[in-house]
Amino acid sequence: MLEPLEQFRLEKLASKTRRKTLFRRLGWLLWLPSLALDLFMLVSGEPTLYTLFVVGGLGAWVVYPELQYTRHYKQKLIPVLLQAFGDHTYDKDGCIDLEAVKSFDILPRFSSKSSEDYISGNIAGVQFEFCELKLKRRGRKSNTTVHGGGALLIVMPFQFTGYTVVDTDYGKVGNRLVSPLAKSRVALENPMFEDRFEVYGSDQQYARYLLSPSLMERIIALDELFRARAKGTGITCEFRDNKALFMLSYFGDLLDVADIDVSAYDLDKMPLLEQELAMITDIIQQLKLDSLAARNVASTRLAEG
């Protein structure tokens, strides 16, 4: 599968190299006259930016083969990676169903959104959606980015009890300032998880059932994966109704492709998608297992009562 992709890369790399050579050898025939015109207009008291436009246009012409490779790489490789995990679909410009989670506490208020690299599928009978998402809030002078990174929505075949929120730990004072849920804090026995996150919930006992040691380990692993590979800055998640929402904050591009100068056979440069999908699969399976365990415990106590 990678062989035709590598051939396409070599073709576009050769095209980029030719264009770069032409730019170096003959580009002055375009930018030098425009520079002279800019200087003449500047002396005349009417400054222009012809040189900037000419150089910018030439630069775009040089890198266009690289953009073609990037687009081709995603179109050819990502669907194949997805099929390795199940019957998943990919949409370059799609977005998760934000309307379905508009009441969630971790979803920030926003006035505009942009999204890309939408993935949806079914894992063990559980529907999920993922996309790279940027949310902005309109301010008096300019728009503020309130979320940049990814968003994962999991729809479970059962209802969660009340709500459970896992938020970033900002310290004792910071937690009270940033979270309206501070009074409903849930104490857990995992020191590593406690150091990284603050948990709030409407049902303390259920929150502890839900956030089992194995699920906490998976959330920590997902956080570390994004911090190490996508310049991640933190994860928040919320379990409410029959949905689990993960807001993944990071600066990198999860589906960023290999550089045109790097062989398509270099597996270390492949997108983070495979690791991220494996982690999503683990979390979904663990949620189902933990929910079943919690139900069994509740049923046993009810029977004993």
What does this structure look like?
With 305 residues, this protein is of the alpha+beta class. It folds into two domains: 2-83, no CATH class; 89-304, no CATH class. Helices cover 48% and strands 23% of the residues. It has eight helices and nine strands. The chain has helices at residues 2-26, 28-43, 50-83, 171-178, 191-196, 204-210, 213-229, 273-304; strands spanning 89-91, 112-123, 126-138, 143-155, 163-168, 185-186, 197-201, 232-240, 243-250. Strands 1-2-3-4-9-8-5-7-6 form a nine-stranded antiparallel sheet. A hairpin with a 2-residue loop joins strand 8 (232-240) and strand 9. Helix 1 runs antiparallel to helix 3 (50-83) and helix 2 packs across helix 3 (50-83). It is elongated. It starts with a helix and ends with a helix.
